[in-house]
Amino acid sequence: KAERLLVYRRPYDEDLTKATRQLLSPAEQAAVLCRARGEQSGVPLALLTNGAHWVLVHARPAEPATVADWDADLWTEEGDLLRAFATLLRAPFVAAGRLANLFAESAAKQAEVTTTLGTQVRQAVELMVGELSRLNRESGGTLLGAVPERQIYRGALTVMMRLVFLFYAEEHRLLPVDSDLYAESYSVTALYDQLQEERDLHGDQVAGLRAAAWPRLLATFAAVYGGCEHDQMRIPPYGGGMFDRSEE
User: Which of 19, 50, 85, 152 could lock onto 10 through a cystine, CB 3.0 to 4.6 A?
Assistant: First the structure.
């Protein structure tokens, strides 16, 4: 019979999704194997468990992997979650290829979301550049001086992409959002909420907070780029890409 699902039992204390500098995570290793086997037998699925967590991996050749993670400790409290997991891995559902198709459809939807997000970022950049242009005219050209238009657009795009990255990272708790220090001095989500609250209370007259917003964003960008070691929070250094300090 044709293979439909690769199954791996891992040690109880092994983190299934955490990689090290020397070694891919077990989930990433399973994705590599899925792609290799997929070229031969079309098996894009792997299931890993250490007894406490169950990780389902979907990976096709030349495509990014998709990973779903379940915490078995929650199943005693969340019966619906356990039933959904069992239904998802029913033999007929897997054998008929419906589970693999479900992942493929999810990836297609994600691509649509990415396209929409790209459009929204471009529109936001255009609004930001337009506002800078208006303020520059009102200042008699002293705001932007001799800064080339291309550099202005590139800088605005860099800021928007950084913000998208940070909002995503904070939503998925990839940054120390539980730290009071981070929440009060670095969090872009908290800054947005504060600005929105001020605007609701005082209209657009929030100049004081707006004046402090940009230095705060620069501090957050610097912390992500170079990292931060503090007794109240830790941020590992990102060290490049869109947070390159030369972009500021």
Answer: 50
The strand pairing partners of 82, in sequence order, are: none
In a 3-state reduction of DSSP, which class is residue 25? coil
| DSSP per-residue string spanning 178-203 | T-HHHHHHT-HHHHHHHHHHHHHHHT
Please name which of 210, 216, 220 lies closest in space to residue 245, comparing C-alpha atoms: 220
Return the amino acid letter for 76. Answer: T
CB 73 within 8 A of CB 52: yes
Distance CA 174, CA 238 (A): 12
Of 171, 165, 245, 182, residue with least CA distance to 216:
182
Q: What tens digit of pLDDT does each residue of 144-166 get?
A: 888 888 888 888 888 888 998 89
Cα torsion through 158, 175, 238, 218, rounded to 10: 50
Distance CA 199, CA 127 (A): 19
Cα separation, 123 vs 120, in Å, equals: 5
pTM of the model: 0.53
Q: What's the rounded Cα separation, in Å, for the pair 75 and 32? A: 29
Helix (H) or strand (E) segment spanning residue 58: strand 53-58
> Using CB atoms within 10 A of its CB, is residue 224 exposed (0-12), middle (13-18) or buried (19+)?
buried
Instruction: Name 121's Cβ contacts closer than 8 Å, sequence gap at least 6.
Output: 157, 160, 161, 164
d(CA 109, CA 103): 10
